[in-house]
Amino acid sequence: MLHLHRWKILAVATLANLVLLANLAAGDPKGLEEIAWLDIAGEGGAALLAFLWLGLILNSRPSGRVTNYLVAGLTGIFIAYWQDVLDEVIRLPEAVVWDHWVESGAMPLGMVLLTLGIYHWQREQLAINEQLRRRERIFREHRSFDRLTNLTSAPYLRRQLAMELGEAGRAVTLMMLDVNRFDHVRRQLGSRDADRLLQELAELLLLNLRQDDLLCRYAGDRFAVVLPGTGEREATLLAGELIAAVDHFAFKTRQGETHLQRLDVGLATARGDEPDALIERANQDLEARRQQPAPA
Ligand SMILES: Nc1nc2c(ncn2[C@@H]2O[C@H](COP(=O)(O)OP(=O)(O)OP(=O)(O)O)[C@@H](O)[C@H]2O)c(=O)[nH]1
Hints:
two-stranded antiparallel sheet
């Protein structure tokens, strides 16, 4: 990500150099015996840490308002400490006052901007968490994520189901979704477009689910949805909505051709099952529905 922010990095480096040049132009280097090394270590260490935080922020964030606040805040803090360090090695004449402004002005300004940045960052994170809910539901475990779709995988599904099924008195339905004849689709489109189709289908399904539902990639072209607090009737309605959404999804191949696909669905509402038994029933239901003739 650092390459996205090269202007910001250049601006901070230029500012630090300007402060150094202004100190050199206005003052004289102190003798070695005058230097308080402990102060240099403390203030220099703080400047270095502020610079390191700046690098870490820039390396992990896209451009935008929140990043600008964080960078401006940390730059203020870094410059204040940098001036502190320069004060230790360069003696400025009594008449010079701007160094006090750099030190005492940049620090509180930096703190205010950093606080604003952290406040907006927190709001941004809450919004992202809301979006991630349908992928993660209750806990976050990044080793469980499927690289292609960014959805969680079958072991994660089992753990979530175990938690849901442990909650007495609450209906839970498991929905299995499978792309019809995906093997044929993969041969027709090629692996790269088939990969992209799976990714886009995952996004489409997420968009059509409710806040508390959990979508996982069960295996290959099979997805699973945990529907908490949902009985058979409601789950059937939801399944119909997902089928309709996929029916109307006009996937575009890299050649710009339209490809249409169909989703097969299986449902199983928990009746005291263990996770594996519920998954098995949902898979069986999917296979049984496939055998039924398609509605005219
Ligand atoms: N491109 C791509 N293909 C995948 C991926 N995972 C599984 N597949 C392919 O998905 C196909 C799944 O085939 P099947 O299990 O026969 O399922 P199907 O063709 O949908 O058959 P039905 O389920 O009976 O409709 C295989 O060709 C796999 O190679 C993936 O991540 N990317």
